[in-house]
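Record type: monomer structure entry
Structure origin: computed from sequence
Chain ID: A
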Amino acid sequence: MKRIEILGLQTIPEIKAGDDLAQIICDCAKNENAGINEKDILVLTSKIVSKALGLIRKKADVKVSKKAARISKNTGKDPIWVQMILDAGHKIIPWGEQ
């Protein structure tokens, strides 16, 4: 029988842009006596990765375009959220055009 064990690191500090996320994770795992072993699987949230990469924006700094406003109206999604998706270079494909 295979065994699965899930451990959550408790000492990860607040992550800032430019932080060495891999080193922080390794250090915290070592300090918590968990370590990281061959064949271990690490699961990270997109939020912690985005913070380390400096991909965090203030809503007040986002300028909503006409395109984002139109998509927002059609989808009911927050226009700022839609604009950030467009700014990140993602393409929004209308339903049925996949």
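Annotation 1: DSSP finds four helices and no strands in the chain.
Annotation 2: The first helix runs from residue 21 to 31.
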